[in-house]
Structure formats: C-alpha cells, structure tokens
Amino acid sequence: MSTRRTILGFAAALVIGTASFAGTAQAQGKELVVFAAASLKNALDEASAKWVKASGKPVPKISYAASSALARQLEQGAPADLFLSADLDWMDYAEKKGLIRSDSRVSMLANRIVLIAPAESKAAATLAQGVDLTTALDGGRLAMANVDSVPAGKYGKAALETLGGWDKVKDRIAQADNVRATLLLVSRGEAPLGIVYATDAAADPKVKVIATFPEGSHPPIVYPVAVTKDSANADAAAFLAFLRGGEARASFEKQGFTVLNKAASAS
User: Fold this and answer.
1) pLDDT tens, 201-234?
2) pTM listed for this prediction
3) Looking at domain 113-217, which CATH architecture does it have?
4) Which is it for the CA torsion 257, 115, 189, 67, positive or negative?
5) What is the pLDDT of residues 113-172, one digit of tens each?
6) Are the beta carbons of 194 and 182 closer than 8 angstroms?
7) What residues does 107 pair with on adjacent strands?
8) Please, what CATH class does the domain formed by 3-110+223-259 belong to?
9) Residue boundaries of the structural domains of the chain
10) 47 membership: H or E segment, kind and range
11) Smallest Cα–Cα separation from 131: which of 42, 245, 211, 236?
12) Which residues of 21-43 are buried (b: 16+ CB within 10 A; e: fewer)?
C-alpha cells in the first residue's frame, strides 16, 4: 500500500462520528453535539462519561477531526453546540466568521509537541539548533499532520524552521489529515518518525518519544473552547463549565494536558 493510500485510509477512519448534515435541524437543541480536535479524543471521551454519570444527561455526540476541518464544517452550516480547537488560529477564524459566542470563549488546555518513533526503533535525535533528521529517517518519511492547515502540522513545521531543520526534511514529509492519523502512521511502522502532541504519544504504547521540541521553537499550544453561535442546546454552557471543573480536569491531566485557568474549578 502506498503512503498516500495509507494516509487517506487513516484519515477516513479518524474522522470519528462526524455528523451528517441531513436532518440535523431537528436534532439541534436535543442532542449535545461537540466538534473537537482529534488529539482530545481519549481525555474528552473520559470527561464526557463523567458528565453523563454526574448529570444524568445523554452521551454527547462528539465529532473528532482536525481543527481546520471542523471550523470549515461549522462555516458550511454543520450543527454543533461546542467547538474545541487545538490552536488559537482556528478559533479566531470561527470567531471572525461569527460562528461562536465570543463571551463563552476560554483557553482551556495546553500541550507540547514531540518527535516519536515506533516503540522498537533505535532512532535517536536531539532537537537543537541545526537539527538534521535525515539520518534518523534512514530513507523513510517524517509523518506530520498537514503543515498548512492542521495545528499539529503547523506547530511542527514552525519548530523545525526555528531550529533550522525544515529545509533538510521538507521533501520527505508524509502529511496526514489530522494528528491521530499521523500517530497511526508511526504506530503501524509506515513512517520511522513523526511529530505529534505529547498527549497523543502517551495514548499509544506502540510508539515512543525520542525528543521533545523546545517550547520557544513554536507558538504556544493552546486549546480554546466556545459555545457555537447557533447552538440551541441549554446543556452546552453546562457541559463547558463541567469541562473546566475538577472532575474533567483530572481526565485531561491524566492524558498529559496542562489545564489553564485553574481558578475556574467549580463544576
């Protein structure tokens, strides 16, 4: 199977639970629909289960994909009650387009990006100025989320540019539609190295972190959340408040996220 076909297959599998637009007007306001960055899956699934137990409400319907894809779906009229982005840029985009309620927006989480390899790999690298990953790649490709639109890919490219290593590998990139598809490329041995969030690496025992990118090499990795402009679901604000509370915070921290605005701890 070619790398391109592999990526497309993973991308199709990773857009989990994306809602069909047909008949959604009736569902809007009844079922809590959440659009969330793919990297949030493990933590948000666990937090959602806690919400159901604590509130007695139905299980939220969560669509996981790249923040870029989710923002564009909102722009095209896809119904959702909450939007959780993996970067500020796509939330800014949604806000400028009038797709969210600005007064509900909050920066909730922070993350790191790391260089990963298959768990049994002997690859090594030091992420310092002048880094050259070509030796560690050993003729293979560096798996990254789309470097032009997907937050994880943009962060990774920015870090490599800052460290002077981008030009050495830019023609050896295997780009995926989201960060979880990137993770799978490495986990399944389709790529010898990949750049993902630290939280993604922690979720897959088939990969290992071989280096962490210096924080100053890329913009801060911040996850904002907001209620969408057209949400008609009274549970949207309550679920957002729950995600900022103590029970949900434990789920996010367990997966390796840093929780921001810890003062907002009441749930």
Assistant:
1) 999 999 999 999 999 999 999 999 999 999 999 9
2) 0.84
3) 3-Layer(aba) Sandwich (3.40)
4) positive
5) 999 999 999 999 999 999 999 999 999 999 999 999 999 999 999 999 999 999 999 999
6) yes
7) 224
8) alpha beta
9) 3-110+223-259, 113-217
10) helix 41-55
11) 211
12) eeeeeeebbebbbbbbbbbbbbb
